[in-house]
C-alpha cells in the first residue's frame, strides 16, 4: 500500500489535466448556455467564435512579443487577452446585427437560427484560415512549469511526482475569476436580473419594461468574451489549431446539456464532469492500482476502459446519453 | 414543374460543358461525378428535412458507413485473420447479443424503480464479458502483416453490390439512431446526430481490425475498366483513332470517368424516380401534413413518431448509398478525410440553396454547390491575385493571402447559406 504515490500519480495524469480542461470547457459551455437562455437556439458558430477570439489574442501576442513587451514569467498572451475579447465581441455583435436580428424580428423558429449559425460558422472558419492559416500556432512564452515533476519528487521524496504547467494554473485562476464575476453580475446587478427574468419568462419580462434588444446585446457580449477567454486558454494550454474548434464544440455542447440548458451553474458543473469523464475513462489505471495493492503486485492488462483514441468520443457518448436519459440535465434546464 | 427547372438544369449543363472546353474534359467529368454523388446525398437530406422537417446533422456518419460497406463487400477476405480470431470474434458477437437480450428481458420484468440500475449493471457486466473475448481477438488480427492487411478484409464480392448494401447498413444505423433520438426537439436532435456521426467516424478510425483505421484501405476494386488495361485493348485504341484523338491514355481517363458517370446517373435516376413517386403519393401528402401541423396530423390518427422514423431511415439509406459510391469512385476509404464541414454542412447548403422539399431543387443544389466548392479555389486564387496586385511580388502578406485562397470556399459557402436563408428561404426551386 502506498497511498501517497498512488495519489501523486493520479493527480499528475488525471486530476490536474482534467481540472484545466474542465475549466476551459466550463467557460465555453457558459457562453453557449447564455445564448441558449436568451436567444433560445444552439449556436453552432460558438466553437469558431472561440477560435476567432483566440486568433486575435495570438496576433496581439505576436505584436507585443515583437515590440519587446513581456510580463515574464507570465505568458504575454494574458496581456493580449483583452484584444481577443474585444475582437470576439465585435464579431458577435456584427453577426447579430446583420444575421440574427432579422430572424429575431421575424420570430423564426429555433431550427432556422441553428441553420443560420451554421452559415456564420462557415464564414468564420474561412476568415480564420485566411487570416492566420490552417497550421498549428504555438504562442505561449514565460515560464513553462509552476513546479516540475522533478521538483516535486525532490521536495517530497516520493517515487511519483506531480507537475503543474503554468498554463494550467492560469487557466483555473482566470476561469474562477471570470465565473465569479459572471455569477455576481447575474445575481446582483440590475441587468443580470433582467437577463434571468427574460430567460425565464419572456413575455413577463417585456411587460415589466425590459428592453429585449439590450438584453440580447449583453448576452452576445458575455458569450463572446467567454468564448475568447476559453479559446485563448485552450490554445495556451495545448496548441492553437484552427480545425480543433469544431471538435471541441461537441464536448462544450455536452457540458451545456449535461448541466441543464440555460443554467450557468450547470454549465460549470457539466464542463468538469465531461472533462473528468474523458480523462478517467481513457486513463490506464494499472500503475495506480499497483501502488494501492500489496508489494510487487500489479494487475494484468492496463485496466483501461477505452483506448486513448476514444478520448473525444467519450464526450459524444455522454452527450447522447444525457439527451436520451435526462434531457433537462442535472439542474433542470429548459424544457424540451 | 415550373419553367425555371429546365432553364437551371440547362445552364448547369452548359457550365459543365464550358469547363470541358476551357479547362479539360477530365476536370469536367471529375466534377460531374462528384456532383452526381452530392445530388444523391442532397436527396437523402431533403427527404429528412424537406419532407419531414427533421434536422439531421449526422450525414457524415451515414456516408462513412456506406464507405465502410464498400470496403467490407469488395475487398478480398484476409484468411489468416479469420482463422486467427474468427472464433473469438464470433463469441464476442454472441456475448453482445446475449447482453442486449438480457437488458431487454430485464427491462420488461424488473420493477420500474430498479430499471435504470439493472440496465446499467447489465451494461457494465456485458462490456467486460465482451471485451474479454474481443480485445485479444482484435489484437491478433491487427498483428497480422500490419503493413498490408491487419484487418479482416471483406467478402470479395463485386463492388456494385456495396451500393445497395451501404444503403442497408446506413438504414440500420439510422433506424437505431432514430429510435433513440427522434423524440428530441429539433436543435437537440441536431446536436445528438452531430455527436453520433462523430462516434461513427471514431469507430471507423480506431477499430483497425474492421477498417484498417488510419492506415486506410486503398485499391477498392472498380466496377469499371482500369486505364492501364484500356490502352492495351484493341477496340478502345481503334475507337480513339477513329475519333481522331491523339492521346489514348488521356482518352482512357475520360472514358473511365464517363463510365462512372453513367452508373451514377442510373442510380440517381432510380432514387429520383422513387423519391418523386413517394412525394406525390398519399404518403408524401401525409408527410407534409405532419411537417406543417404535427398536432393536427396526430389528431387525424397519423402515427407521427413512426412516420418520422420511417423517413429518417429512408434518408439515411440514400446517404449510405452515396457514401458507398463515393468510396468506390475514390477507390479508397480514408477515415480521417471525413470532416463535418465537408460531409454534413456542405450537403445542408446544397439542400437549402436548391429548395427544401423539392427533389429537383435538391439535385440542382447538389450540382451548383459542388461545382462552386471545386471552382472556389481557382476563383479564390484569382480574387486574391487581384487584391494583392498593389503589393510587391515578394511581400509576406501577398504570399500569405495567396496561401489562404483555398479557404475562400468556406467564406463562399457561408455567404451563400446566409444569403439564401435571408433573401430566398424557399431556395432556387421552391416546393410546389
Automatic annotation (TrEMBL), chain A:
Protein's cellular compartments: Cell membrane
Domain of life: Bacteria
An example molecular function term from Gene Ontology annotations: L-phenylalanine transmembrane transporter activity
Keywords: Amino-acid transport, Cell inner membrane, Cell membrane, Membrane, Transmembrane, Transmembrane helix, Transport
Gene Ontology annotations of biological process type: D-alanine transmembrane transport; L-alanine transport; L-isoleucine import across plasma membrane
Family matches, as CDD domains: TM_PBP1_LivH_like (cd06582)
Regions crossing the membrane: 6-39, 51-71, 77-99, 111-132, 168-186, 215-236, 242-261, 268-285, 305-325
Membrane topology annotation: Multi-pass membrane protein
Database matches in InterPro entries: ABC_transp_permease, BCAA_transport_permease
Primary subcellular site in the record, as a coarse category: membrane
GO cellular component, one term: plasma membrane
Protein family according to the UniProt entry: Belongs to the binding-protein-dependent transport system permease family. LivHM subfamily.
Stored PANTHER family: BRANCHED-CHAIN AMINO ACID TRANSPORT SYSTEM PERMEASE PROTEIN LIVH, HIGH-AFFINITY BRANCHED-CHAIN AMINO ACID TRANSPORT SYSTEM PERMEASE PROTEIN LIVH
Protein name as it appears in the record: Branched-chain amino acid ABC transporter permease
Species the sequence originates in: Nisaea acidiphila
Lineage start: Bacteria, Pseudomonadati, Pseudomonadota, Alphaproteobacteria, Rhodospirillales
Automatic annotation (TrEMBL), chain B:
Membrane among keywords: yes
One cellular component term from this protein's GO annotations in UniProt: plasma membrane
Ranges in a coiled coil: none
Protein topology in the membrane: Multi-pass membrane protein
Pfam families linked: BPD_transp_2
Keyword Transmembrane helix: yes
Keywords annotated in UniProt: Cell membrane, Membrane, Transmembrane, Transmembrane helix
Entry-linked InterPro entries: ABC_transp_permease (IPR001851), LivM-like (IPR043428)
Record's subcellular location: Cell membrane
CDD domains: TM_PBP1_LivM_like
Alphabetized GO MF terms: branched-chain amino acid transmembrane transporter activity
Residues passing through the membrane, by range: 7-25, 31-47, 54-76, 82-105, 117-135, 155-176, 188-206, 250-275, 309-329, 341-360, 367-387, 407-424
Protein name (database record): Branched-chain amino acid ABC transporter permease
Species the sequence originates in: Nisaea acidiphila
Lineage, top ranks: Bacteria, Pseudomonadati, Pseudomonadota, Alphaproteobacteria, Rhodospirillales
